[in-house]
Design a protein that fits this description.
globular
Length: 268
């Protein structure tokens, strides 16, 4: 077995990748980092750090939930503020992707028409329905998890693994639009994708009181469904598809965590 090239690994995984990932996926007031331009290394190579971003966002939102709970707020109210925190921290970019995909995938009859609708900033009926259902589902699930005193780990698992799913879809599908954000970002590559997925799996395995294989299976199925729909509808992925992947996978994982509180884990 060949010994890994340490220099190659250092080139593949750099501390700056974490800063790039946070700058792309969050609206946190980070200090400005000046990085030299590297034409040979697309920004997507930093995608291995996307799950780390998810962990940090989950911990911040979870801290808000814990603080409000200790102040005596009811679970539904706490869940609303936890969800609001997650949306604000990410700039609602994933919600925007879900809405655009819903409008484009089911509002157009051809690939070109679907891509045109997805690029339009106007939200349609399908997008509104998708957003409302997504927010309601996450609010309900978070509220139930607060009641079960299982909020923090559920948020960490869902937020981290759903962003690992983004990387997998980004690498496994070609870009569908040549002038979009996803095309400019590039492809993460097999190594970055493997590390992102590994981080997501490790977090799932470390989560106490949860069936790791069930959660991993849920994440895979959710991401696979979005991937296959995108492949069929537009022949690849865009930034909107990646946002939809994150939303659907997060909902699937929160659902799994909530179901396990009611005995699903006891099923062989």
């Amino acid at each position: 077995m060949a010994i890994p090239d340490i220099t190659a690994l250092r080139q593949a995984f750099r501390p700056r990748d974490i800063a790039v990932a946070f700058a792309l996926l969050t609206r946190l007031p980070l200090p400005h980092f000046h990085f030299p331009t590297e034409p040979h290394r697309p920004p997507a190579r930093s995608a291995w750090a996307y799950p780390l971003v998810g962990i940090v966002l989950a911990l911040i939102a979870g801290a808000v939930g814990v603080a409000l709970t200790r102040m005596g707020a009811t679970p539904p109210l706490v869940a609303a503020f936890v969800l609001l925190t997650l949306v604000m921290l990410s700039g609602a970019m994933h919600e925007d992707g879900l809405a655009d995909c819903a409008d484009g995938f089911w509002g157009g009859w051809t690939r070109e028409k679907r891509l045109k609708i997805m690029k339009d900033s106007v939200i349609g009926t399908y997008g509104v329905v998708a957003l409302v259902l997504s927010l309601l589902l996450r609010w309900y699930l978070i509220s139930e998890l607060i009641t079960d005193e299982a909020l923090i780990w559920a948020l960490v698992v869902a937020s981290c693994a759903s962003r690992a799913a983004i990387v997998w879809v980004m690498d496994s599908l070609p870009t569908a639009r040549r002038d979009g954000l996803s095309d400019r970002t590039g492809r993460p590559g097999e190594l970055a994708t493997a590390v992102a997925v590994l981080i997501g799996v490790v977090v799932i395995v470390l989560a106490p009181d949860y069936s790791a294989w069930r959660l991993a299976l849920l994440a895979l199925l959710a991401a696979l469904v979005v991937r296959q729909i995108a492949k069929r509808k537009i022949g690849g992925q865009t930034g909107d598809v990646l946002g939809a992947t994150q939303q659907v996978t997060e909902i699937a994982l929160l659902t799994g965590c909530q179901m396990m509180a009611y005995g699903w884990q006891a099923i062989p």
